[in-house]
Amino acid sequence: MKFFILTLLAVSLSLNVVADEVSNGAELFNKNCIKCHQTPANFTRKNKKTKSYSALKKRVKQCGLMVGASLFDDEVESITNYLNQQYYHYAK
Ligand code: HEC
Fold first, then answer.
1. How many CB atoms lie within 10 A of CB 70?
2. pTM for the whole structure
3. CA angle (30, 32, 36) in 5-degree steps
4. Whose CA is nearest to atom 8 of ligand 1?
5. Each residue's pLDDT tens digit, 9-22
6. Are 43 and 88 in contact (CB under 8 A)?
7. pLDDT tens digits, 38-91
8. Atom 40 of ligand 1, nearest CA residue
9. C-alpha 37 – ligand 1 centre gap (Å)
């Protein structure tokens, strides 16, 4: 029983972390990226350039550098998670 409760607790905690990360990613995206990405056209186009989670993360980092957003690695990760959940759906 104790184990069950602990497992449940661990699962719900990690779900919370994922949810936080995604909403933080949305916030960062709205702050730094929305001016050029008002529509998700680049993320949903057929010939999109990012074909995997790691490529997406690289591109998030590059776009961040390009716009001088000085994102920390965990922020790049959050934005990547957000875009992946919303549009790309790549396996990590
Ligand atoms: C100054 C305008 C501008 C800003 C600001 C900007 N981007 Fe972009 N982004 C672009 C353009 C233009 C492209 C398409 C380039 C191409 O066709 O390869 C692009 C492409 C992308 C792609 C790749 C789309 C694909 O093909 O899969 C991602 C991901 C992306 N941007 C993420 C971001 C993120 C995250 C931010 C904020 C940190 C951001 N962008 C800010 C202009 C911008």
1. 9
2. 0.84
3. 85
4. 63
5. 666 666 666 667 77
6. yes
7. 999 999 999 999 999 999 999 999 999 999 998 999 999 999 999 999 999 999
8. 63
9. 7
